[in-house]
Amino acid sequence: MFHQQDHLKSQLQESHPASRHLFHCQECGKQYNTQLGYRRHLVAAHSAASGLPCAEGPQSLLEHLGSHTDRPPPLDDNSTATVPVRERKYSCERCDRRFYTRKDVRRHAVVHTGRRDFLCPRCAQRFGRRDHLTRHLKKSHAQESGLMPPCTPGCTPVAEPTAGTQCSVKEEPSPVASDVGLGSKEPMETFSRDMYNSYPMANPVPGMGHPHSLMQGSLSSSMGVARHMPPQSSHPHHHHLQPPVAPQQQPYSNMARYQHGSTSYPRTDVDSFLLDLQSAPPPHLSAVNSSTSTSASPQREVLGEGVGAGGDPHLLSRSPAISSSELSCTTNMDLGPLLGFLPFGLPPYSPHMGMGGLMMSYPPATTTTSPTASSSGLSSQAPGPFFFQPPQAHVPQGPGAHNHSQLPQAYSSPAMSTSSSLPHYYQAFQQ
DNA sequence: GGATGCGGCGACCGATCC
DNA sequence: GGATCGGTCGCCGCATCC
Question: Residue A176's domain spans which residues?
């Protein structure tokens, strides 16, 4: 669909969003809105005679141009004078480090949050980025499993329940992040990262037994999340409960695409979801939360509160756009206290970690599912080995069963209606 | 020297704009 | 409907650590 030039254009415009019509070719007089267009023009029309310092051919010139964009323009600009210097326009709020794109800033945020959401299913080592886990798996565990890395598309995690599973530890930000972020937009970012980077947590330690056993009556179910994902949802991007009976049918590729905050989420649904989270009442852990977590994670506060503590039990699930995996992460159970005792190299649990508690979500042990979940038939979008256990205690399902009218007043607070889309989670600290 | 952390960036995709 | 925007994913190279 899109090619390198298109993407380059996007990227360049991202770096220079206000630089439309700023690129003027002094050789032919053509103007271009974007640096990319101008570059392409240079490559296509003036690559040989443009006086570009590169002796490389046009084939590689376009790519090579990027290597020059950090440099100041030549003082005696005969031809390419108006090419602006590519600057690291996007800076990190916490360290003032600068990046070329916002996405780099976002990814960089992990450095400050200390989040390591990606857990190696074989050695329980955690990584802050998925590709790190992938690389780790390829390098360190390739021969052990003889399988494709769990996070590679096409894998069948459940076919390899313990090894071939992409794991995500819902690790909340480190104390550093908590400290730094409080003054800024860290909470939102933290949550956004939860939303985006959370992956199903398969059993990371084969010796731990069936992961389901850990979460009988998981927080997810106790919170009533995903219980009412409209099985007949007409939205193609809606994420549905994963029928526990066939989790292996979910290609990871599908999961990844939607689980990480794809922009495909219906805006309205995300809005309502954000609304719910942001307007959640003050921290008050639900019974489940209190029994499994001692940290006062804002994330959990919101999530736990919204459902478990008198809040709308449909808080999370009310937004059908939220994938089951997302729900899994947002309803993560803080297993820090538990895992702190487990001998696989996880950092000891510290109640002072705040958002840094190790959180994982496991699929429930039982295979009893609501007809809704089992019949959703949308396993392709559910995360690999991970799935939701619809709560045993059901609430009325079907359209209208979870409309906003049932929400507490706070959930419809207009003050929280500023968020407009899921990507804006990140914009909270991008701007 | 290998593993890991990190940034750069290409590929791809869905949403939105025009 | 094409162009554009904004997002995730993952590869690569480099730096650092052990």
Answer: 98-430
